[in-house]
């Protein structure tokens, strides 16, 4: 009897979904008429199924598409972390301090040699030095270039500027952002994203090579009253 009950109960889910043959459904129905324990468990499952059906389909957030686009762009940018970023970090942590020490030692040597030359009276006119190269360690931040849409004020519930911190990749496109101050409702976020995704920036650079960077932007907020 126990084995038969176990077999019947294992088919309850398929029975509720109507996913078993007719003869099996009849067998389970007859069993439920004669077995109070199985009938009690089945009724509990049926009530649970009805309750879940009454919940209905969950509604996706209005800004779900926007968040997914930004999340995907963020992940792609993280996966494409270039050797330039790694080189920049290694330069700041190891190579640059070493070069500073070497430069200091070299400068001391130049002063010593220069003093000896002056003492010996072997002074020659210095040759002009051209400074056409980019300064060592030059770092730039992203700069706005243009947008595929005309920049316009953000419609808000009250007049207030919106300050946004935008993250720009090596191609000069925004892959993530954060509203630092100002209204943060769904309508404002959608308008900010519409302008950011269509904007093109001059990417940040290290030693003349483009890298990811951050830029702070300010949008005018204009109150719209019905």
Topology summary:
Blueprint: H1 2-9, H2 12-17, H3 22-34, H4 36-55, H5 64-79, H6 83-120, E1 139-140, E2 143-147, E3 154-156, E4 162-168, E5 174-181, H7 186-197, E6 199-202, E7 204-206, E8 209-211, E9 213-219, E10 221-223
Parallel strand pairs: 3-10
Antiparallel strand pairs: 1-7, 2-6, 4-5, 4-9, 7-8
Write up what this structure looks like.
The protein is α+β, with helices and mostly antiparallel strands and 226 residues long. It is 50% helix and 20% strand. The strands form 4 sheets. A 3-stranded antiparallel beta sheet has the order 1-7-8, with helices on one face. The protein has a 3-stranded antiparallel beta sheet with strand order 5-4-9. Strands 2-6 form a two-stranded antiparallel ribbon.
Features:
alpha+beta, 10 strands, three-stranded antiparallel beta sheet, 226 residues, 20% strand, 7 helices
């Amino acid at each position: 009897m126990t084995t038969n009950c176990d077999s019947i109960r294992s088919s309850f889910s398929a029975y509720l979904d109507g996913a078993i043959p007719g003869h099996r459904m009849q067998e389970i129905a007859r069993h439920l008429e004669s077995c109070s324990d199985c009938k009690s468990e089945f009724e509990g499952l049926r009530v649970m199924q009805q309750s879940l059906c009454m919940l209905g389909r969950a509604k996706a957030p209005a800004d779900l598409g926007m968040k997914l686009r930004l999340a995907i762009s963020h992940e792609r940018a993280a996966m494409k972390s270039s050797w330039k970023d790694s080189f920049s970090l290694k330069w700041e942590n190891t190579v640059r301090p070493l070069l500073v020490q070497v430069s200091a030692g070299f400068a001391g040597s130049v002063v010593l040699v220069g003093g000896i030359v002056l003492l010996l009276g072997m002074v020659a006119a210095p040759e002009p030095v051209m400074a056409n190269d980019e300064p060592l360690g030059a770092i730039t931040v992203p700069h706005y270039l243009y947008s595929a849409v005309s920049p316009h004020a953000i419609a808000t519930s009250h007049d207030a500027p919106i300050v946004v911190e935008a993250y720009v990749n090596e191609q000069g496109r925004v892959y993530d952002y954060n509203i630092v101050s100002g209204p943060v409702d769904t309508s404002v976020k959608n308008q900010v994203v519409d302008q950011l995704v269509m904007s093109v920036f001059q990417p940040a650079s290290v030693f003349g090579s483009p890298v990811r960077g951050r830029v702070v932007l300010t949008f005018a907020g204009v109150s719209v009253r019905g």
